[in-house]
Amino acid sequence: MAEHLSPSASMTTIRQDDFIQSIYQSLQYIACYHSPDFLQALHEAWQREPAPAARDAMGQILINSYLCAQGQRPLCQDTGIVVAFVQVGMQVQWDAKLSLQEMVNEGVRLAYGDPDNRLRASIVSDPAGKRLNTRDNTPAVVHVELVPGDKVEINISAKGGGSENKAKLAMLEPSDNIVDWVLRTVPTMGAGWCPPGVLGIGIGGTAEKAVLLAKQSLFAPIDIHELRARGPADRAEELRLELYEKVNRLGIGAQGLGGLTTVLDIKILQTATHATSLPVAMIPNCAATRHIHFTLDGSGPAILPVPRLQDWPQIAQESGTPMRQVNLDTLTKADILQWQPGEQLLLSGKLLTGRDAAHKRIVDLITSGQPLPDGLDFHNRFIYYVGPVDPVRDEVIGPAGPTTATRMDRFTDTMLGDAGLLGMIGKAERGEATVDAIRHHQSVYLIAIGGAAYLISQAIKAARVVAFADLGMEAVYEFTVENMPVTVAVDSQGHSVHETGPAEWRPKIADIPIFTA
Ligand SMILES: O=C(O)C[C@H](O)C(=O)O
Q1: Cα–Cα distance for residue pair 2/13, rounded to 1 Å
Q2: From the alpha carbon of 404, which atom of ligand 1 is closest?
Q3: Ligand 1, closest atom to CA 407?
Q4: What reactions does this protein catalyze (predicted)?
Q5: DSSP secondary structure letters along 190-229
Q6: Do residues 405 and 445 lie in contact, with contact meaning Cβ atoms separated by under 8 Å?
Q7: Do residues 55 and 48 touch, judged by C-beta distance below 8 A?
Q8: Per-residue b/e over 351-377, b at no fewer than 16 CB within 10 Å?
Q9: Is the separation of the CB atoms in 138 and 97 below 8 Å?
Q10: What is the pTM of this model?
Q11: Cα(16)–Cα(104) distance, rounded to whole angstroms?
Q12: Which residue's alpha carbon is nearest to atom 5 within ligand 1?
């Protein structure tokens, strides 16, 4: 005779407030604390890295991580778009008035507006139109699944825009080679996703299912060395090992500067597909990898592990060759002609900021013959591509790392020509036409380390909004910096370290084992 479950016996009740508090606390937590598996993998990669620029980049990310855990401030200025996968047990009932989406949004609102640790509101509504910042980082992206059981399982992440922008989907043919596709595709993603990180790969299903699997795969802990030690159990695990080895052999390295470690792990989830199809999706996770899993069983809000500062690797900034001191306030074109590709500089003085939305407005004003707003003058100034976190406590500004410069390429010739800009600071490579414009205007492009946002903000001594305050984090600020560390990425002759670095290190690392264990 069929057994019937008594509904009342196994029912769990989840209270709205417990759910919202759990979302809020988990988002605050992942904004500040790297997970132990990521820290260990990055520390190992830093210890093994033979390429000085890549090693320095990873060192800065590790120091930044420690400072964020200590100061409880965000790892990256891009505190992400919230993505929640919620599995609801079919024996769960809710003591709630809001929908699940509304409850997640409420948790996001509390987390991003927390006065003790404000996070950056990065979400814009009407993306194909007005692109207005929603000011509280809502709405979240929520995926819900009904599963057997009496608990609610939540995987939540705050996904950085720079890495999400590099997501790829290919509808391969059944006899196509997945490894070839990945190895062809990763170099096209450039450095805007802030390697070293993790590549999530979804295989099978339909187009949208492959993308979801790729995203879900990124929730698993980094364990490629354990997999190697125990040996692959199926084709997906074989692929993980093969891709880990071959992607790292590409020599892209940390921040795309050339080096031994481009990926810390490869994650793969697969499911059945149509006989004609081989959908493959790939989504990278950046160095500010932020995700956590928790369970609600009706007993109250989630309890998250208390991080212990002694678990963070203690590394000191290494003093390599002496850095050139640069006074931004007296700098001339003649000075920047002296700077060499790969040279490290310490910037002091005043610079302006600006990113996507401000660039669009500025270039629209210039091309329609209108003046820039009062007080906004780029002549002989440097621009820093950044959207900072608002300050809390005694800060002048919150974490303020670079955003992907490549998105500003379309505006650069006008900024260097008509607006009179001297040079730029950002992260990742520039396109060919932009490198030509840099050479033509005898300008320069400098990079700061993506993923070292709180560390970088320590060099910012004053900040004020100069124009477009309505753009929120995308407003134009003036920063006064002291000893801000940057590297010459494209010099005035158009030499680019994102070209020369990987080309130099690919052959050099060819004989170094990728797996140590
Ligand atoms: O939005 C940002 O500040 C950075 C962005 O995530 C990027 O990597 O380009």
Answers
A1: 26
A2: 9
A3: 9
A4: (S)-malate = fumarate + H2O
A5: TTTT-SSEEEEEEEEE-HHHHHHHHHHHTTSPP-HHHHHH
A6: yes
A7: no
A8: bbbbbbbbbebbbebbeeeeebeeebe
A9: no
A10: 0.95
A11: 10
A12: 162
Whether 478 contacts 397, CB under 8 Å: no
From the number of C-beta atoms within 10 Å of its C-beta (0-12, 13-18, 19+), residue 335 rates as middle
503 CB-near residues (< 8 Å, 6+ apart): 258
| Adjacent-strand bridge partners of 382 | 423
Across the chain, which distance is largest between two alpha carbons, in Å?
Answer: 90
Predicted pLDDT of residue 315 = 85
What is the Cα–Cα distance from 4 to 147, expressed in whole angstroms?
Answer: 17
Ligand 1 atom 1 nearest Cα: 78
Residue ranges of domains in the chain, CATH in brackets: 161-287 (no CATH), 324-502 (3.20.130.10)
In tens, the pLDDT along 124-140 reads 999 999 999 999 999 99
How far the first Cα of the chain sits from its last, in Å, is 54
Structure letter (DSSP) for residue 339: P
Counting atoms of ligand 1 from 1, which one is nearest the CA of 473? 3
Q: Which of 131, 404, 425, 473 to mutate to test the pocket of ligand 1 (most atoms within 8 A of CB)?
A: 404
Residue 431: how many CB atoms within 10 A of its CB?
Answer: 14
**The dihedral sign for the CA sequence 504, 509, 514, 517:** negative
Residue ranges for the chain with pLDDT beneath 70: 1-9, 317-320, 517
Q: Give the residue whose CA is nearest to atom 7 of ligand 1.
A: 162
- Scan for tokens 């080096």, then name that residue: 259
CA of 484 from ligand 1 middle (Å) equals: 19
For 36, counting Cβ atoms within 10 Å of its Cβ (0-12 exposed, 13-18 middle, 19+ buried), the class is middle
